[in-house]
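Box 3.1 A note on notation
Throughout this textbook, protein chains are presented in two layers. The first layer is the amino acid sequence; the second is a token string describing backbone geometry. Keep the layers aligned when reading.
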Amino acid sequence: MTAAAEAWLTAEVDGYKSPGTLQKFGFGQSNPTFRLRAESGDYVLRRKPVGPLLPKAHAIEREYRVLSALRGSGVSVPNVRAFCEDSSLLGAPFYIMDFVEGRIFYDQRLPGLSPAERGEIFDAMNVAVASLHNIDPVAVGLDGFGRSERFVERQVATWTRQYRASEGVRCDAMENLIDWLPANLPPEQPARIFHGDLRLDNMIFHPSEPRVVGLLDWELSTIGDPLADFAYHAMIWRVGADLFRGFADLDRPALRIPEECDYVRDYCVRTGRANIPHWHFYLAFGLFRVAAILQGVWRRSQDGQASSADAEEVGAKARPLAEIGWEIAQSS
């Protein structure tokens, strides 16, 4: 830590006592994330990457705003402490939040748990997602955080541009989805907080209980269609274990992993819905979106800006995910 960074932390983070040391977490393809150990306790420091960035990418200032707004809302999020725009301190803007003790599961199969415990974790995850989508954004001060009108249409256009900015060899499935998605848009839904990356490993679970105590990684958050957010979360039912940690090819009953239809039903009950029309569109869009994101990971690996050592391997999964998305689109 630089002397200037220590001085800023002491001034801006209530109760902070130096010296502090940074230890990079192994996760975080987009924004480097560090454990900050200090005499006053442990914190988390999340920073933008250093160097040229894609437009609107790595928006940690948006993360900071939504985390601040959700404090006390019933959605479990870490307590944020301070945001720093001054790149001279650590090379890029960053923010500080509390370190949350708990479990993070990186394997969707939950190999260390019993079948009963797996079922409880999936149910807790469903509760956390539904709780977020039940929040009125205006009620927590997030009016103006994003434009909800024509949300999916604009998202398709945004991720098409992001893909074009980082594409390499032509991918026919992506090209097909770029044509198909705008022509098959679903009706607009009431605006809700759109997390943007609702995955099991973006949730911290209580050390011993089946409940979410911290929902992480809000870089892509905005106001928009909750069904697009939920479908992105649920697309792991459509991909294999070797591809984005899915379980389409696993024995789900033996593992006590719920079937897609049951998981969707529980979400609908918790959010007051009868069903989800246009489900195949939302799944295809979710796979298109993650393929565009991973294409950006691949591009950063080529440009020497990767946040993780396995960035090139992760980015190479963009093509097979897009191909699954196109298969789902055709089946609709």
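The domain at 19-98 is CATH 3.30.200.20 (Phosphorylase Kinase; domain 1). The two ends are 53 Å apart (CA to CA).
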